[in-house]
Specification:
The structure is a homodimer.
Chain A: E1 4-9, E2 14-19, E3 25-31, H1 43-51, E4 60-65, E5 80-81, E6 93-95, E7 102-106, E8 110-112, E9 117-119, H2 122-132, E10 138-142, E11 147-153, E12 156-163, H3 165-174, H4 189-201, H5 206-220, H6 224-242, H7 244-247, E13 252-254, H8 258-269, E14 275-277, H9 280-299
Parallel strand pairs in A: 1-4, 4-7, 5-8, 10-13, 13-14
Antiparallel strand pairs in A: 1-2, 2-3, 6-7, 8-9, 10-11, 11-12
Helix pairs in contact in A: 2-9, 3-6, 4-6, 5-6, 6-8
Chain lengths: 300, 300
């Protein structure tokens, strides 16, 4: 029987875990009903569509993290300000529903005043990592569309910084003039390593080195795999140059997509850094469980 | 009577000037029949559609610069390698046409081996500037989708470098998460100046400062005009940091869109640089005229 639902509701996806009171996963489901496809009235039907048959006759708690809590989402769950622990369910926003079987709570994101920054969803992955590694002090890097670097100390997110690296890669590889060169999904590890090094040593040249990918395609028939690896390496190298205060001399844990974490891990490894890679989905689930258990403690 | 046609055929536009032998413009026309809208068989009909009624009964020379000479254009006009003078009609590629009244020649672009780089169209604007300023020694900056910086000495393009700054601005302002902040066409000169300074002093932080525009929109209601000026300033500032070997201690001439040249002029002016702004269309026409007159000399 489903005791509660753990939900990760992002821009492009909806993921639901049917949970028991003891924290066991009974079933997991997902689809593409992300925030980008929904207006405010669409959230409850979308949730029932994916998971309605998992509900019993009583009230089922539903705990949500991610973009569903943004101003354009289901209901705004206002940011908590750093330094702070990853917010638990005591900071969550209750959402009224038509279906009386649902008791929906949305976890807040976190914000930083200076430099201005926000995250929504990643803080729950950090919570999951800290639940599994309660004594961790160091840096968590969450590669993605908007890569986050977070300083962790004494169980708190002390500061963080977001880089648009992943979105730049997507725009440049799919929509810019470089799309003629960056075709396919291939890779060249040697070219990537060189490009990371070039990106780190002269990040100002980024916009020029990007165009060189195009020029080398025209003049030297640069291979598509090399073009893709170079684009990624230049962008990640530039990011590493700016994120140096985060990672230098630190223990770094990576949470994110496997291929992307491998790329970041290779780039950081080349700087001589010990890097720990984790399972991103598991961190999300563990974060939601930690928040739910928090509720249990608070209401016991 | 039209003695020849001067044609600027770019990715997004077709511009035709009906010329007399003495270099007087008799008529100018333009439309959106750029390379992006045409396959190889479409060029001759597109030219006749816009300018067919300008032709006499004899043969009319047609001199073309721009992307029509690329591999995906009407016919490939192979690049000339720097250092070189802007290529004249003696380096042009003749294109066979069905209509016997046309004698079409396409001017080549120029290329650089290391760092790999290419331009196609801008070299004709450089030719026009040098026709009007034959003793110019210095740097020409051509802001645009792919901004070019060119070292000019003794009438030759010695070296050049392309920055994807304009394309990054278009992608980020229209397609990225920043489109929610960068709305409209407004401007804030003070914010632009600060952002140029920030971009120059720490270009590595670009991907993070870009996301800060989003965060400040969410947290501090950053105004759309300020967001747009900051995005532009960060990108141009980063470019200026990398292009410093080009402009430092130089006389800089700007050729391009008025608003964009004003932005570059303001940014360079803040560095204490004397900047000269020009009329981009006039430079293109003067470059085509210089190439046509070159033909006259060569065939006299």
């Amino acid at each position: 029987m489903t005791d509660w639902l753990a939900v990760d509701w992002g821009t492009s996806h909806l993921r639901v875990w049917a949970m028991s009171h003891t924290g066991t996963v009974q079933e997991r489901r997902s689809n593409n009903a992300g925030m980008a496809t929904l207006d405010q009235d669409g959230y409850e039907p979308a949730l029932l569509d994916l998971a309605g048959d998992l509900l019993g006759t009583g009230i089922t708690p539903v705990l949500i993290c991610g973009m569903a809590g943004s101003r354009q989402g289901w209901a705004e769950a206002k940011y908590v300000t750093v330094p702070c622990s990853p917010p638990g369910i005591d900071r969550a926003t209750h959402v009224a529903t038509d279906d009386p079987r649902l008791s929906v709570q949305i976890l807040p994101g976190i914000k930083q005043t200076s430099p201005a920054d926000v995250m929504r969803g990643e803080e729950t992955q950090v919570a999951g990592f800290l639940a599994l590694n309660p004594k961790f002090d160091g840096v968590i890097c969450l590669p993605g569309t908007h890569t986050k670097w977070a300083h962790i100390s004494a169980g708190e997110i002390v500061s963080f910084r977001t880089f648009m690296t992943g979105e730049l890669f997507a725009l440049l590889s799919q929509q810019s003039v470089l799309r003629h060169n960056v075709t396919g999904q291939g890779w060249d590890a040697g070219v990537f390593a060189d490009a990371v090094s070039n990106g780190m040593s002269n990040p100002a040249e980024l916009a020029a080195r990007l165009f060189s990918i195009r020029a080398e395609g025209l003049l030297n028939d640069l291979h598509a795999d090399q073009a893709r690896a170079r684009l990624s390496g230049l962008l990640i190298g530039s990011e590493l140059a700016a994120a140096r205060p985060y990672w230098l001399g630190q223990h770094v844990a990576l949470i994110g997509d496997d291929a992307l974490c491998k790329a970041y891990g290779d780039a950081l490894g080349a700087q001589g850094l010990p890097v720990e890679r984790t399972d991103a989905d598991r961190m999300t689930l563990e974060g939601l469980k930690a928040a739910y258990l928090g509720l249990k403690e608070n209401t016991a």
